[in-house]
Write a structure and sequence with these properties.
Helix content is 28%, strand content 35%. By secondary structure, it is of the alpha+beta class.
């Protein structure tokens, strides 16, 4: 499996498998805010991130095609992103999921995230959003 930053040639695949607009996806590709996973030269998943308050890396979305789930693709995407953020000097990572999504929350916890609070966003989704933070300040690259 190959994990890499997305490039403009990935736009059609991302448009098919992402919930965001073409303009937003293009913006994120240009800013290097996508990682994609390839298996046998086919993209099978992606991780999109942004920066909370303009500085804390925030994993917005991670998605793996159903046929490739439970094969380590999501974890490989996360590890590549985490490593890149450490290399860039980040001290913390953030992510979130809906309160009712037990499986994603368990995945976040297995990958070192701790719950940090929630916000009621039921004006746009059925349950509150729970936020997670991971301290990576003690990880050093040498």
């Amino acid at each position: 499996m190959i994990i890499r930053r997305a490039h403009s040639e990935d736009l059609p695949w991302l448009l098919e498998h992402e919930d965001a607009s073409e303009d937003w996806i293009g913006r994120c590709i240009a800013l290097g805010e996508y990682f994609v996973a390839e298996r046998d030269s086919e993209v099978v998943g992606f991780l999109r991130f942004s920066r909370f308050w303009g500085k804390i890396p925030y994993m917005d979305m991670i998605r793996v095609l159903p046929l490739h789930r439970r094969e380590g693709v999501g974890t490989a995407l996360f590890r590549a992103w985490e490593s890149a953020m450490i290399d860039e000097g980040a001290k913390h990572l953030m992510t979130s999921s809906e309160w009712a999504e037990a499986e994603p929350q368990a995945w976040h916890r297995r990958n070192g995230f701790k719950a940090a609070g929630s916000i009621d966003l039921r004006i746009v989704q059925p349950s509150p959003e729970i936020f997670f933070v991971k301290d990576i300040s003690d990880v050093h690259r040498g």
